[in-house]
Amino acid sequence: MNDAPETCDVLVIGGGNAALCAAITAAEAGASVLILEAAPKAYRGGNSRHTRNFRCMHHGPLGPLIEDYTEEEYLADLMKVTGGRTDDRLARLAIRTSEECLPWMEAHGVRFQPSLSGTLSLARTNAFFLGGGKSLVNAYYRTAQRLGVRVLYEANVTHLTLEDRQVTRVAYSHDGQDKAVAPRSVVVAAGGFQADTDWLARAWGPAAKNFLIRGTPYNRGVVLADLLEQGVDQVGDPTQCHAVAIDGRAPKFDGGIVTRLDCVPFSIVVNKNAERFYDEGEDVWPKRYAIWGRLVAEEPDQVGYVIIDAKSLELFMPSVFPPIAAQSIEELAQKMGLPPAKLRTTVDDFNAACGDTSAFHPTELDGVATTGLTPPKTNWARPITEPPFYGYSLRTGVTFTYLGLKINERAQCSIGGTPMQNLWAAGETMAGSILGQGYLAGFGMTIGTVFGRIAGKEAASHAN
Hints:
Structural class: alpha/beta
Shape: elongated
Strand content: 15-25%
CATH architecture of the largest domain: 3-Layer(bba) Sandwich
Order of helices and strands: EHEEHHEEHEEEEHEHEEEHHEEHHEEEEH
Number of domains: 2
Helix content: 25-40%
Number of helices: 11
CATH class of the largest domain: Alpha Beta
CATH superfamily of the largest domain: FAD/NAD(P)-binding domain
Radius of gyration: 23 Å
């Protein structure tokens, strides 16, 4: 709908998973809801368009999920990747509530498929969306439309007026005009600031100019910056983010999931000097893939190179781009712009450090490790000897940033520790409340779904 109301019960800023969960929940509670989405309709949905799955606690089989996944195991997985940098109360709230979210998602149009095999190993922990994130987003928009939620696309929020700890007016531009709405309640679900590469560079330094942005180019942090400048409580470190190593040939923005590389466990990874710099076999991929974006960011020119051989080519989900292939390590080095003699030495040293590979198991920690090599490879260490040899370039791909709005268990924002009267946050905008560092596959969707629903419920209750 293209009408622009001057008031509404609940205004939702953003158009992705968290925003839609908030809007649907508020509308079902009887509130009039308006969504302001910065993207054009064809690109609606924020980073949710590129997601594939939802990490879910469950007691016994649930939907496509097998066996069980307990609260304590889920929390232990989260603590491992965050190094304990999380709010325990909010983390447990997200984990516990995730179990009831999956049936709610199905009831609101989301369909699931069996989880994928191979390096993902997620059949017990993560439910995969049939048709991917775009299908999820479209299903939610259809549900929202049936509930009477109004949506304005290409609506760029520019300022929220705060008076006495409440939002009294929201200014935005739409159809080339400056407009405003006076909502009773506001839910901010507008993502992080990762698409503003100048802001990334202020946080990370000039190296950030070499980063690629995996998701939407519309998450520029305008609303986040506006609220932080007005004293709304913040959480998180601007240098922490969900960053993975992606195919170096990916576009600057919006490459999405298809540019991710899952081959690291079966490879050696070298920098531009053909030197290894980290243990490629540290853990199963869903628990460790998100560290590689930061690792590559710390190497010269923020680039890395994956080297595998023919026996590993079918063990992982490939990038949308084909690998570089060669019949020898030296030829591969030349094609990839690496020093051939040095890469030959690195591969030979690695191969010499490999031992018995009979216990190799591609989807489990197998203990097939190197001996006497620094850094070691502690699992899946097989010699790279079988031509053709293959390579991918790696660059840091930022999904979303963790600097955000601090919330409580009601998803309520605050100023000076005192809750605001009518401002809530959900999704990537507040994910830093739980993710101090690192990432766990599918957990961003958990955060968005859980706190989107909470924010929508609280916002509607206040408005009514």
